[in-house]
Amino acid sequence: MNKTDLTKKLQDNGSNGLEESPELAQALVRSAGTGIYIVQDGKFVYVNHLFEEMTGYSAKELVGKSSLERVHPEDRNAVREAAVESLKGGSPYPYEYRFVRKNGEAMWILERVTSMNYRGKRAAVGSFMDITMRKRAEQKLVHQSIVLRTLKAVDSLVAEEMDKDFLIDRVCNLLVQAGNYANVWVVLVDGEKKFLSLSYAVRMKEMPCMVENMKRGHY
Are 160 and 180 in a shared domain? Predict the structure, then answer.
């Protein structure tokens, strides 16, 4: 049974309340192969065993607690909007976000949420799967593409720029802008390791943090 079939069955049976057919509900949950939860009034009211295994939290640690507290801070608004859409009766659609495991690690999940009637009140039932490995592979490919593109740009600069100091400055700025690096520093020394020159480029948003680290003696 895939996630779409499971969600539809839960929704169809939700009109009478899952508690009125516990055997069916448990059978559906066991056969799903995905983490399943029910949220009502913004709080967990049910999580299945696979949800516990995937997140590291026990049901006792989650039931009665805010569901958004376990969502990565940067993804909470998107998840909140999806939940609101679900409770309005909108069509369920899969979306990705980061769930923070009990050990503090961020787990990427692919989730589908839909609305149902649970114990006489509107609730959201969600099913999700761990896609962390897939996301890491995608991010690695993106990084490799950026590095290759940046190296080609550096090669072009080396071929056309004759002034050494100006070339190094341009390379530093290129690596920050196109290479997606927070900061780049190039220090030239002679054969005896005596300082000759310094070139650098720093993203403006990183500057306050760098200044603070330098004040603390962290270079």
Answer: yes
